[in-house]
Amino acid sequence: MTFQGLIIQLLSGISTGMVIFLIAVGLSLVFGTLQVLNLAHASLYMLGAYLCFWISATLSEVTGAFWWALLLAPLGVAIFGGLVEVLLLRRIYDREHLDQYLLTFALILIIGDLCKLAWGVDFNMVPTPWPLNGPVIWGDIIFPRYNLFLILCGPVVFVGLWALIQYTRLGKIIRAMTYNREMANALGTNVPLVYTVVFMLGCWLAGLGGALVSPMSSVMPGMDMVVLIECFIIVVIGGLGSLPGAFLGSLIFGLVNAFGILVAPRLAIAFAFILMIIVLIVRPWGLMGKPE
Amino acid sequence: MMEPELNRSHTIKTIGGLVAVLVGFLILPLFLPLGWLSLVNEMIILALAACGLNLMLGYAGMVSFGPAGLYAVGAYTTALFLYYTEIPFGLALIAGPVSAAIASVIIGWFCVRLTHVYFALLTLAFAQIIHTIVFEWYGFTKGDDGIVDIRVPAFLESITNYYYFSLIIVCICLALMWRIVNSPFGKTLQALRENPERTEFIGINVRLYQLSAFVLSGFFLGAAGSLFCGFNKNVFPNYAHWMKSTEMLVVCLLGGVYNFLGPVVGSIVYILLDKVITSFTQYWPLVLGLVVLALLLFLKGGIAGFISEKVSAGRASWGKGERNV
User: Fold this and answer.
1) How many contacts does A have with B, using Cβ atoms within 8 A?
2) Number of folded domains in chain A?
3) Which domain holds residue A82?
């Protein structure tokens, strides 16, 4: 392969990884704090993409419609998530794993069909927003400007989240609850409130991922399932509940995918699965996670 | 404690009930139209798959996300043998569960090393790999097109005959499973579900027992897959899709996982719901999702759990007067 080809493949791998990082990190954060594996996380991502499409189409007369959509769509998803947590999820925290899986699975079906009801089953396109349309040309390397923007988004969110967890009061509580839930509870933390806030934050991240993806892939039913499986792979590789783990896992996933496609185009996802299985056997708690 | 007298009459009643249900299933073809009969056929095959899954899920407490993978291994083995070779139908049908059991040994060997959420995710990953292989290996499995027009013996061509054939096989499999869950092995699995640490302390090899449960479960899932392949006369990659896995999980939950016949009840209700609702609306997943939510929030223990709770509550109050709670 030529040097240019290598660079382009590398960049596209990283940009895939960074988008999926936004989604996976929400899943991981929610699992780390609430101990619930939210199977419907990717459905919230789809909801974000649909909202972004809908808002930017509605506001198409306004300049910078996409940017308004990018601001509003994740907020909408977060509010929806807050309702789900308060009305449904809260009732089953003390139940078995199976019940939690099934509840969040039911949400996949419900959200999927609600999106179909609201927006139909057609492919929807969101135009790449100004000023990010068009390519960046750097010698022989031509790369879409929007994807470079995505590469930037990943680290920004990563640093933002890290600062939130490291330096704020909420972050301290999240760390305390991830470390020892009973003790945090006994020390007077308002656990239900923190759960709601963390779940909404996770949903906001999923919605942001969906909104950011909408200009580079079509918004359509079924887009959630592919991403859900990819998120699983990432959080297992990185370690469920670990922020740096989700980042590392996303990078690895993006690169394995980008270069796997070159080796065997149709089996790229299988490489990622094999990687996940190896990690699960050698280090079940993930590369950056803590053993149980 | 239940008195022996009561216990014996209870057993007699249960057996009587089962015989009545069986007779009911036997005479169904006399008055059901063929369309409905094939629906019942689908029901009993799904019931077999769900009971197989429940060996692992309800009895051993191992939540698998990937039962459809093993179901598909069974179905595809039978289909591929019938497509590429000339071996008799019966042999191909037996090859299905056997190869699913072999696949379970390999997959289970990895999976039982993990617990809870990691176990669930690894089973999902293996099922997805099976799906990917079936989907992408076009030259061998015909990929997306599936294998169609599978040959079955002439006497199984008719829907009624195939119905009797599946009924016999499903009954044999259920009887085997009933023996298994009531054997010392089955009791050990339940102990394991309740408390793995303590079970290990009394000298039980936890992983070996879990692996055995996984393989047995895989065997019956494969049997259901093979049976369905013969019934439908075709196989498609979506047999291994994780929607299929969840369908089985929902069926178990709907009926109740802590009841031997729970999955059977679940599959009857599930298929009826599917049939009725899809005739009204295309938004079947939405309704299914709402049904699952309602079950989780208001009907813990599923339908069979609910009924047996009512029955035993009724019996207790009938036998001994009101019990203090």
Assistant:
1) 101
2) 1
3) 17-222
